[in-house]
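Q: what does this look like with iron/sulfur cluster bound?
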Amino acid sequence: MPSVDTTIQLIQIHEQPGHTPASTCSSALADAPWNFDATPTYGPGASLEDPIPSTAPRQPGLPSEYRNASPAELDLRIRAAKAALREKLVILGHFYQRDEVIQYADFVGDSFQLANAARTRPNAEAIVFCGVHFMAETADMLSRPDQAVILPNLAAGCSMADMADLDSVTDCWEQLDEILGQELTPDGRQQVIPVTYMNSSAALKAFCGERGGVVCTSSNAAQVLTWAFERGQRVLFFPDQHLGRNTAKAMGIPLDLMPVWNPNLPLGGNTPEALRSARVLLWHGYCSVHKRFTVEQIAYARQRHPGVHVIVHPECPMPVVDAADSAGSTDFIVKAIAAAPAGSTFAIGTEINLVQRLASQYPQHTIFCLDSIICPCSTMYRIHPGYLAWVLEALERGEILNRISVPESIAVPARLALETMLKLSPRPQTPA
Ligand code: SF4
């Protein structure tokens, strides 16, 4: 199976018209992710230029025995630890995780599927989440208190989730209160319902739970918005403006009723009138990986592969979603490819690890990434087999490293928002 490590080496060669060398990725992350754990940026990759908040968790150094171990040695050590821990351990791997790590996962899926999958292993005392920080928080809130959720590298955050913090969302809420008031509408609905994407901190999920709001995923965003409009005149949607805009537009909401809230500007950069007439207030956040996809890339794919089916994730900008043949969550993309007749051609606009894995799993199709200058999610990429071996061998010794533990004061209201979402769209887990 091809590895993204190889792909990162290749991006220097396979440049695409319209890209400058500055838009390529560096292979430094593939060589030694631990070199970036303490840096103030997300490191080489698609989120390189996004500022990292000073409060984001940092990973203390990885012991040299893991940094210096060969891939073969790490493989032996991980397999030995897994065999020793048996049913006391469950390893979850996100779709976007590198193959060198995914090979050890008991379940592979999106963040929501994985949080649910953990519930199906009642004997597991440790849940090792090979994803990013907000996913591990969600798994902790949905698992039993005696189950330890472990993130192998604490520097595996999410640049999009970090674009909305509790202080700035609370400040936005207070400004909206001043403009809109707190009175219910004549038909008994709230002025604003807060909706947070799963890709957000537990504190923001709790914020929603405390204010009659809800969590959504890219699979159920339309159902969640429908639910929210039954209870409120407007929705404050954070942190991903693109998922919010693409979903609301598909529901028929005009773009001029979807102002963007920039947390660095008074009233988010809007007039009071625009806020009063708004139906969806979109937080100024985005995914660095998905914003790389462009309409030009789609035109290029169609020119080179007549008949290609272009399928993109709804975290892509609206013009890209509009130009694609279809758009949907990672689960939607996986299912669309599984159901296609042999000989289909797909150009996919989502993270490269998933695209490569699909290309390997379905050799009867032609599957390629829309963006030929491939940047992986640099934070997801922080989970190297060295970190996995480190936390697993510690577990074998009875030591829990990198436990992600959400305080009950946050977990209780956050679960309210999560449980509301669960009731709206119960979904099955995906075994690896
Ligand atoms: S792909 Fe984007 S949204 Fe997903 S974890 Fe990476 S930065 Fe966050």
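Residues 162-283 form one domain. The longest strand covers residues 190-197.
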